[in-house]
Structures are given as structure tokens and as C-alpha cells.
Amino acid sequence: LTATSGGDNGTSWNDAFTDLQSALGILNACPDAADKIYVAEGTYKPTGTTNREISFNIPTDVEVYGGFPSGGDIFANRDWEIYETILSGDIGVQNDSTDNSYHVVSTLNVSDSTLVEGFIITNGNADGSNLHGYGGGWLNIANSDHSNPRLNKCHFYLNHALIRGGGMYNQALDVFQCSPTISNTLFEKNISKYGGAVNNTTTNGGMSQPLIEHC
């Protein structure tokens, strides 16, 4: 999909969605529709409204790749450093963090076949109550199954959480694992009371042990 123009059905670059949330919504509703999303450079926001509770909810078993040039290209020509693909929580008044999304990205009970690669994740502000005080950049929860997504070649920048996990928060409940693999990723200027970059929490015997490598 592309941030500029497209036919809004996702069948090709010429007919790309212009909204990442639309593509994710189709996959959440119809899990067999596709297993990969290619995203061209640009800035994408979870919502066009001011609803701070909306995030980019990544379905299980889906691979989402940023770093394609504007208008799209073959996979071999993608470059996440040159073609910056930004997921931003700055949904309200620009440069005013008080009305930003609580979480830019969220995952719930997703498998280790779930991959997010080549994105800048920025301007999440989890300053609310309950879970809205956790995981400004990314909220990852395992409460009825394991939740072990893979993150590669990402940049968590300027995210905030009031309580835990400014960049990313992983919470494992009961007997489940919440242990993502995070590789080749930069955490920069993320702030929280506990775990500015990443915070991992377990409840009732759950396990949260991310593998973090080359970060």
C-alpha cells in the first residue's frame, strides 16, 4: 500500500490501499485473504479520527514490510533506511502529544509467524488508565494464547508510557508466553516510569522473555 494514491483494493501497487488500517482490517476480518502487506514510504496513522484507543492491530501470522519506494517496487529494492515508512500516533493536533494514540501498534495472542519489519514507530503516548498506561509504541498481550511476534529493522522513537514500556510493553498472563523476537532495532528517546525502551511483565505464572539481538 502507499500513502499517496491507489485504487484502494490492495491487489497491486497501482491499486494499493492508501490506508494501512484498511488493509489490516480486511485481514482481521478475513484471515485467509493474504499473509503479507507491503508498505511504501510515507507516514501512516492508526485513525483519521481523534480516538486515542485505536492502534494498528497486527493479525496473527501476517508479515508487514515497510521500506518500499513511493509507488512501490519489487521486494529486492526495498530499503527501510532510505524509504522511511512511519507509523505515527500523532493523530490529533500536530506536535501535541496529549491527544496522541495510546498505542501505535498492538498485538494480541499472535504467533511467531507474525512479523513487522522496516518501520519507524513514533509518537505513541500511553498516559491513560489501565492498559492505556502501558506500551506507548507497542502493546503486546498474551492472555488466551502465546504472543510472540517478530520485530526486525524497526526504530522506536519518541514514545511514552505513564507506567511501563515507553517503546514496547509485553504482558504474559496465566500459562502463556509473551516473548517477541526483537532484532536489528533501535530504541531512542522513549520514556516510561519503568522500562523506557521495553518492559516485560508476568501474571499468574505467565512467561515474558523477549529475545533481543543486534539492537
Short description:
The protein is mostly beta strands and 215 residues long.
Textual characterization of the structure:
Helices cover 5% and strands 34% of the residues. The strands form four sheets. A six-stranded parallel β-sheet has the order 1-4-7-11-15-19, with no helix packed on it. A five-stranded parallel β-sheet has the order 2-5-8-12-16, with no helix packed on it. Strands 3-6-10-14-18 form a five-stranded parallel β-sheet. The protein contains one helix and 19 strands. The chain is globular. It has one helix at residues 20-29, and strands spanning 36-40, 42-44, 56-57, 63-68, 85-88, 105-108, 115-117, 120-122, 125-126, 138-142, 150-152, 155-157, 160-164, 168-173, 181-183, 186-188, 191-194, 198-203, 211-213. The chain is mostly beta strands and 215 residues long.
Fold blueprint:
Elements: H1 20-29, E1 36-40, E2 42-44, E3 56-57, E4 63-68, E5 85-88, E6 105-108, E7 115-117, E8 120-122, E9 125-126, E10 138-142, E11 150-152, E12 155-157, E13 160-164, E14 168-173, E15 181-183, E16 186-188, E17 191-194, E18 198-203, E19 211-213
Parallel strand pairs: 1-4, 2-5, 3-6, 4-7, 5-8, 6-10, 7-11, 8-12, 9-13, 10-14, 11-15, 12-16, 13-17, 14-18, 15-19
Mean pLDDT: 93
β-strand number: 19
Spatial ordering of strands, largest sheet: 1-4-7-11-15-19
Strand content: 25-35%
Report the biggest beta sheet as strand number plus sense, adding barrel if it closes: 6 strands, parallel
- Unreliable spans: none
- Which series of helices and strands comes N to C? HEEEEEEEEEEEEEEEEEEE
The number of helical segments is 1
CA gyration radius, whole angstroms: 16 Å
Distance between the termini: 27 Å
| Cα shape | globular
Going by helix content, strand content and strand pairing, the class is mainly beta
Helix content: under 10%
